[in-house]
Amino acid sequence: MLVVDCCIRGEESATRKYYRAYLEKAGIPAEEIMVLDLSREEVASLDADGLRRRDDLCARKAFDDAMFAFARQFRDAEEILIAAPFWDLSFPALLKSYLEQVCVTGLTFGYAEDGACVGYCRAKRLLYFPPAAASSGRGIWALST
Ligand SMILES: Cc1cc2nc3c(=O)[nH]c(=O)nc-3n(C[C@H](O)[C@H](O)[C@H](O)COP(=O)(O)O)c2cc1C
Fold it and tell me: Which fold does the domain 2-144 belong to in CATH?
């Protein structure tokens, strides 16, 4: 399982405590969990130069480039848990930047001939621990493919 941890307040974060309790209760062995602590990673937001470089790499299908490390990891994960607090009626900008890095045409998704969007990710389930989960315990959302 890939845990995308966007709990910016670190060990003070209620969201982090909550998802850790969930993992413990679910009995998922530690060796099967890969925690990606976004606060400790360099997660660049896309800019014009980055987009140009990305478009060029995608056109050449050069998906082994370091630029796509997050996207490859996301595509290959068997299960994904995203944990992020509720900030300004949404989630922290850091998570949006991460999603920009992960949404790569031709690598994590593409289009069928009729124009329909097709996912290339291996995970059958994505759990989102949204803010409400931290305070009320009612907010786990599960998206299954
Ligand atoms: C920058 C910031 C923005 C926030 N925006 C909202 C909000 O729009 N609505 C809300 O109900 N709580 C908001 N909160 C409160 C947090 O959701 C709440 O403190 C939550 O427990 C933080 O999660 P954490 O303990 O995992 O960091 C905000 C907190 C911060 C720091």
Answer: Rossmann fold (3.40.50)
